[in-house]
Specification:
Elements (H helix, E strand, L loop, with lengths): L2 H57 L2 H5 L14 E12 L3 E5 L5 E5 L5 E4 L2 E2 L10 E9 L2 E9 L7 H7 L2 E2 L11 E2 L11 E2 L2 H14 L4 E7 L5 E6 L1 E3 L2 E4 L5 E4 L1
Parallel strand pairs: 3-7, 4-7
Antiparallel strand pairs: 1-2, 1-6, 1-11, 2-3, 4-5, 6-7, 8-13, 9-15, 10-11, 11-12, 12-14, 14-15
Length: 255
């Protein structure tokens, strides 16, 4: 074979090798591109699914369904708020006690160094908290747990079962629908969850009169309505859940 033929054959082999490598690289590039596109589509799909799930969760969350802040400008369904309850002390520990209301609702009361104690209308100390005593508790309420700001032993009001029965208070019973009856004056423009939460002396006065009229439950918040009157929200009973109070703290209606 001549020198020219050898060079021609070598050139042909080099060209074939170059073409083979080129095709191989193009194939690898195409495969990587396809994988990247598939991964991106899957990621986008996952992101879209997550977003959809978040939106769905938000629309069915307890806050969304409860009509919290934003519904008519109301904050009436926010967290712990001023309220209270009345009952008979059933057990006492170092910094708390439990009591049972006139309809049997159990309430836990947490005491603090700032808690004020009264016996009747006179000042007293934490030592007055003993099993069997009747008490009126005012403070920050979270469900049926109250962090007490004031505890009155042997309060002047009657918060017993006779008053509860006469007022038509229905004890809480799981699975039993609440009565739909309404008594007295209900604000014509009232909607559940409306109003602005109040605290301090105003909330205490409204809580006291609401419990005196309908003892047995736990007032877990007091709100000021658009007409200037108040609503005490009552839990731990099947009726009433809403007690309406005038600006001069007189109970005028409930349902």
């Amino acid at each position: 074979m001549s020198k020219r033929d050898k060079m021609s054959k070598r050139t042909s082999l080099s060209l074939k090798t170059f073409i083979s490598v080129t095709f191989l690289l193009l194939a690898i590039t195409a495969i990587l591109a396809a994988c990247g596109s598939s991964s991106g589509t899957a990621t986008a799909s996952s992101s879209s699914s997550t977003s959809s799930s978040s939106t769905s969760s938000s629309s069915t969350s307890p806050i969304a369904k409860a009509g919290g802040p934003g519904k008519g400008g109301s904050n009436a369904r926010s967290g712990p708020a001023s309220g209270g309850s009345a009952g008979t002390i059933s057990s006492v520990s170092t910094s708390s006690f439990t009591m049972s209301t006139s309809v049997g609702q159990k309430v836990t009361v947490n005491e603090a160094s700032s808690t004020i104690y009264q016996k009747g209308t006179s000042s007293t100390s934490a030592s007055a908290i003993t099993t069997g005593e009747s008490v009126l508790v005012l403070g920050m309420t979270n469900g049926t747990t109250i962090t007490a700001t004031q505890v009155t032993v042997q309060p002047t009001g009657n918060y017993g079962s006779a008053v509860s029965s006469a007022a038509g208070v229905v004890p809480f019973k799981r699975g039993t629908p609440s009565p739909t009856k309404k008594v007295g004056q209900i604000p014509s423009n009232y909607t559940e969850g409306s109003g602005t939460i109040v605290s301090g002396t105003t909330a205490n006065k409204a809580t006291e009169v609401a419990l005196a009229a309908y003892p047995g439950g736990v007032v877990d918040r007091v709100v000021k309505l658009s007409n200037g009157e108040y609503e005490a929200h009552n839990i731990g009973v099947n009726w009433p859940h809403h007690v309406f109070i005038t600006q001069d703290f007189k109970v005028v209606g409930a349902y």
